[in-house]
């Protein structure tokens, strides 16, 4: 589910983590991997990409390549950074 599809009322009482909440120092494994793989192009989609990847790694710490591709295919990137996104998720899973 995308955050833009949830009303404020629908989120009432839920724990919400934003990209700023992943790490106060900006050194979450996904953030480090995103920098190492130079993932962003324009950056517009990147917060959502990283948060989807964080949710994936939270429930599946060592996802397969196909699992990453399948999960991340739900988030569009107009700059087509898909191959770098997959590499970054694989790196974060390895270094996590
Ligand atoms: S980096 Fe530009 S839309 Fe994804």
From TrEMBL:
The keyword Transmembrane does not apply. Keywords: 2Fe-2S, Iron, Iron-sulfur, Metal-binding. Residues 18-90 form the [2Fe-2S]-binding domain. Pfam families: Fer2_2 (PF01799). It comes from the Bacteria. GO terms for molecular function: 2 iron, 2 sulfur cluster binding; metal ion binding; oxidoreductase activity. This is (2Fe-2S) binding domain-containing protein. It comes from Salipiger abyssi.
């Amino acid at each position: 589910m995308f955050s833009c599809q949830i009303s404020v009322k629908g989120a009432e009482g839920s724990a919400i983590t934003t990209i700023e909440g992943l790490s106060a120092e900006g050194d979450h494994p996904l953030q480090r991997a995103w920098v190492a793989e130079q993932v962003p192009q324009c950056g517009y989609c990147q917060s959502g990409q990283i948060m989807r990847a964080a949710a994936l790694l939270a429930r599946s710490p060592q996802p397969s390549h196909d699992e990453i591709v399948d999960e991340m295919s739900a988030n569009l990137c107009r700059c087509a950074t898909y191959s770098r996104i997959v590499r970054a998720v694989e790196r974060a899973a390895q270094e996590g």
